[in-house]
Specification:
heterotrimer, A alpha+beta, B mainly alpha, C mainly alpha, B: mainly alpha, Cytochrome Bc1 Complex, Chain D, domain 2, 2 domains, two-stranded antiparallel ribbon, 14 helices, 4 strands, 3% strand, C: mainly alpha, Cytochrome Bc1 Complex, Chain C, 6% strand, globular
Chain lengths: 370, 288, 583
Amino acid sequence: MTENLPETTDGHHAGPVTVEEPIPNPGLPTHQWRPTDVDPKAEKRAERQVAALFGLAALGAIGFLVSYFVFEIGDQHQTDTIGNLGASNLMLGLCLAVLLLGMGAGLIQWARKLMADHEIVEMRHPAASSPEDREAAVAILQTGLEESGLGRRPLIRNSLLAAGGLLGLLPIVMLRDLGPLPGDKLYHTIWDMNTWTPAQQAWWATQHRTLQRVVRDVVGTPIKATDLEVGDLVNCEPEIHFATSPDGQPLMEGTALMQSKAKAAVILNRMLPGDIVSAQTQNWSVDGIVCYSKICTHVGCPISLNERTTHHLLCPCHQSTFDLADSGKVLFGPAARPLPQLDITVDDEGYLVARHDFDEPVGPSFWERG
Amino acid sequence: MRLLNRPLGRLSRHRRRPLAGLLVVLLGLLLTGGLYAVFSPAQASQDNSAAQIKQGRELFLAGCSFCHGQNGQGVKTLDGNQLGPPLIGVGAAAVDFQVGTGRMPAVQPGPQIPRKEVSYTPDEIAALAAFVASLGPGPAIPSPEDYSLAGLSDSELQQAVARGGQIFLSNCSACHNFEGSGGAMPKGGYAPRIRGVPAKYIYEAMLTGPQAMDNFSNGNLSPAEKRDVIAYLQSLQDNPDFGGFGLGGIGPVSEGMFAWLFGIGSLVGVATWIAAHTARTSKTKAEM
Amino acid sequence: MSLDTSKIADTNRGTPATAKKPNKAGAVAGWADDRLSLGTLTKAFARKVFPDHWSFMLGEIALWSFVVLLLTGVFLTFWFVPSMSESTYQGSYTQLRGVQMSDAYASTLHISFDVRGGLLVRQMHHWAAMLFIAAMFVHMMRTFVTGAFRKPRELNWIVGSLLLLLGILEGFAGYSLPDDLLSGTGMRIADGLIKATPVVGTYMSFFLFGGEFPGDVIIPRLYILHVLLIPGLLLALIGAHMLLLVFHKHTQWPGPGRTEKNVVGYPMLPVYAAKAGGFFFMVFGVTALMGALLSINPIWKYGPYDPSKVTAGSQPDWYMGIAEGLLRIMPNWETHIWGITISWNVMIPGQILPFVLFGMIIGWPFLEAWVTGDKREHHLLQRPRNAPTRTAFLAAMVTVYGLLWAAGGNDILATHFHWSLNSITYFMRAAVFILPAIVFYITRRWCIGLQRADNDRLLHGYETGIIMRSPEGAYSERHLPISEERAYTLTARQRDEVHELHPAVDENGVAAPGSRSDQIRARLSQAMFGDNVQKPTAQELEEARHHAEHTHELEAGLAHPASGHEFDDHNLRDAEDVPLRSH
C-alpha cells in the first residue's frame, strides 16, 4: 500500500479523494453573460421565440382535436388516408408531436436563454454517518435487543423463526394449483386415438374407419396420395381437429384445439421414392410421401421451410435444418434431435392416414424425456 | 370525411368498388400479362400452336439448350452437378413464370436464379412455353378465371380474403414472411419478396414450385384456395399503411434499428442541446 | 424600509397570530405546510444543484419513457381484454373477419381499428418501451465508462441493473400480450427454454401455462405481471434510484472549481426543473412522432396465434435479440444419459450465458474496488481514456452484445446482404470469441494513446498548425500552451496505483494469510493499471514550461516571430461585444 491510498482499516470512514494536483485549482471561472442578459433586444427576441413555441404547441393541440373528429378509422375502405398512410393515426400523432415538442422546446429555450444561469455550488458530505451517530445507533439496537429479551429467550426466538419459516412456505405450496402435473401428456399427441375424449370416440364410431386421416391445415380436407405431385409440401393436421358433431359444432375448439395443434401439426412432402435415404423413412412413407412433425425439436417453433431440391427443412426461428429424406436428421443449427416422423399409409379410399402416433415425444427436449 | 379525403386519397379507392375492380383487373391484364391470353394453349387453335411450337423450339435452341439440353432433357456438368434441370413435364406454366419474371434465361448457373429484367417478348415467351409444354404433359398456363377475383360478390371476396389469409399464414409466410417480404433459406438461398408480384405469377409459382420452392399443385392447394391466397395478398396490397411507414415489413429487427437510430439518436441530440452552453458575450451586466 | 408588523401579536387572545393572507395560493400553501412541513422540504430541495452535461440526461430519457409508458399503458387497459377465450372476429379489419381468435388479440385489433387514437397510443407505448430499455442501456454504459458506479454509488448501480432486468421482463410480457403470431411464437420459445430446465422443466412449464402449452391462462397471468407487479417493482426501484441520486448528489466532471467536495451546476428551481420538464415533453413528443410515422408491431398482419403457423423473420424485440442470437449460434449439444436429457443447446444460451454476461457487467465495479483497494468516495468522473482497461472491457462487451444481436437477426442479414445463413452462423460462432478480444486490445491501446496525447498537450502545448522556418532552414510547428483551466482539467485526476504483492511469507517465514488472493489481486492490478499513462508531476510541468520559454526566447529573435494566433479568434477576444464561444 502506498501512502496515497487510505488505510483499509479506516476504510469505512474515508471521505472523498484528495487528488494530488500538479496545477493548482484556478477556481470557478468568472460568469460570462449571455446576449439575452445584456441586450434587451436579444432578450425580447428570445421571449418571442419561447412564446412562438408555446403558441405552436397550442396549435398542435387544436390540430389534434380537429383530427380526432375529422378523420375516420375503420376497415381498409373506411380509413381515411394521406398518401397511403392512415390519416387518423398520422395526423393525431403529428399534432401531438407538435404539441409536446413545442412545449418541450419552449421550456428548454426559456431555461437556456432567459432563466438566470449562474452556476451555484453546493457542498457534499460523506454518505457515512458520523462515528458518534454510528455508536448511538449500535447502542439503540443493543438496547432494543436487550429490552425485548430476544437474546435471552431462545425459546421465543426459535418458535418465532419456526412460525415465520412455515409462513414463508405457504405461498410456495399454494402455487401448486397453478397447473396440473405433466403426467404423460408430452408423450402422446392426438394422433393416438386412445387419448380421445368420449365425444371424439363417439364421432369416430360413426366414421367406420380404422385409421385417422391426415388432412389439410385450415380447410380440413383429406388428401389422396395421388393428389400430390413430386415436390408438393402440404401443411397438415389430424382429421379430428376438423371433426364436427351432427349439429355442426366442432368437436375441438379453443384451448384444447390449440394444445393439440401445438403437438400434432405435421407436414407432408412428396419426393421421388429414389431420393429417400434411410430405411425407416422409406418404410413409413407412401410412394415417396413422407410425413413429419411440424414442431421443431429445438424449442418448438412450427417448421415448414422446405427446399424442394434438397428436402432440407429449415426452422425460421433458429435455423435448425433437418433432412426429410433421411429420418429428419439434423444437418445444421442448434436442434439436437431428428424431427419425429409419422408412420403413414393409405386407407381403402386412397386417403393418407397415420398408422399410429409418433413413437417419441414431439417438440422441445425436456429432462425426463430420456 | 369522404369529401375531405378525395384530394388526399389514392387512386386505389376507386379500385375498391366491385365494378372498378373488374376494370382494373382487365387493365392490369392488358398492361402486364396482356397478350399471352391470345396465345394460351387452351385458346390457341391447332395449326397456330404448331407454328408456335416451331418458333419456340428455335428460341429454345438459341437461348436455353446450353443448360437444359437440345430436347429439354437437362444437362449435367462433368462433376455430376446439374447445370440445368430437365424440362420435360414442367409444363407451360413453369416457362411462363421463369421467363416471364426474367429469372430465365439465367446469367450463370447457381442454386438460385434471381429475378431480373425480362428478355423475351410476350409472343416469344408464349412460343417457348408452347414448345416446353409439347415435351411432356405439365401444368398449363392458368387462365385469368383461375385467379381473377372479378366474379366474386363482396361477401364472397371477404370470405376468400379471410380464408386466403389463413392459408397464406399456414403455407407461405414461413418462407415468404407475414406480408410477403421474403426470407432466408439455407446456404445463401432465399424466398423472394412476393409483394406486388402479378397474380398470374403468384399462381404459377404455387402451381409449379419454381427452383427450390415446394409445389402447391392443384392436389395440394385447390385452384380456389390458390385464388384465395391471391385475394389475400391483393387485399394486403390495398391496405393503407394504417400505422405509418412499414419499415420494410420485416418485423422487429428494423423496429429495433429505428428505436436506436431515430429514437435514441434524436433524444441524445436533444440532451446535447439542453446541456450545450449558449452563446456568450464579453459585455457585462451593469447592475450585478 | 418598514417593518412588517403583521406577524407580531397585537392582542393577548388565545388564538395565535397569523400572517395576513396575501392570496389564495398562499393560503393553500400555508394550509399544506402546517401539515406537511413543505417549507422545510422546499428549502432543502428546491435549490438542489444538478451539474449540466448531456451524458447526465441519458437516464432521464429512460425515466421519461417510463412515464410515457404509464400514461399510454393506462389508456390501453381501458380496452384491452386479457383473456384467451376465443370468439369469431367481426370487427373492422376485413382480412380477419370470421377468423377464430382470442379476446386478447381481438381487443388489440379493436384498439387499433375502432378506437380513435388507439393505434397511435399502442404504437407510442411500444416505441416508448423500446426507448425505455435502450435508454437504460446507454445510461448504464455512461455510468460504467465514467466510473460513476464507484463508492458511494455501488448500491445504485445494483438498483439500476435490477431496473434493466425488470424492464426487459416487462417488455417481454407486454410483447406477448396481444397474442399474435409473433408473440405466440415468442411464448413458444420461452416454453422451450423453460422445458430445458433440469429436473423441474416440464413442471415449471405446466405450472406457468396452467397445463400444456399454450393453455388459456398465460395471457391473464402475464397481464397482471405486466400492469401491476412489475410496474410496481419498477416504480419502487425508480424511487429508490432517484432518492439515492438526491442523497449522494450527482457526480460531475472535473474542472476549475469542481472538486470531490462540491457539486457545481444549476439549481433545481427554476433552471433544472424547466430543462427536465422540457425534456419530458421532448421524449413524449419523440414517441408521438414515432407513433405517427413509423408502424410498429402491425399485429393485424401477423394474425392470431396458432401453434401450427409461423412466419419468416420471427424475431423478438431488440432487447431480447441477444438471447435469440445465443440460441441461434449455439452448437447442438445435448446429452442423453441414465434416461434423462440435458439440453445444453438450450440451457447454455437461454438460461446461463445471458446471466453470465449480465453478471460480468454488474460485478465489474466490485472487482475493480477489490483490485484497487480503494475505499474512498468518488464524485468526480473519470474520462473513459483514463480508465483504459474498463473502457476496453465495455467496448468488448458491447461487441459481444452487438454480434449476438446481429446473430439474432441472421436471417434478415442473409436476405438483405445476400449472405449465406449458414456462413453467418459459422462466422458468429468464432467471432463472439475473437472480435471482442481484438476490440478490447485496440480500445485499450487507443485510450492509452489518448492519455499520451493529453500529456503532450500539458507538457508541450497544443499544435497551432503554424509552420515556421528557422534561418537555417529547419521547419518546426509552433506550439502554444493550453489555457490554465484546460491544463487543470486534464490534471484533475488520480494517479493509478498498481497493487504490489505482499511477501508470500512474513519475516518469520510464516505464510501470510490470503497470499493467494493477494497474488491474483496484484496480477489483475498490474493488468488493469500497469500500462496506464500517469499525469505529469509538478516538476515535469515546471521543466516543460522552462523549455517552452527558452524556445520562445529564441524565436523572439526572429525577424517575423509567429504568435501562433494567426488563425484563431484570440485577437478578437479582447475586442468589445463579440459573442464568445466556449472552448
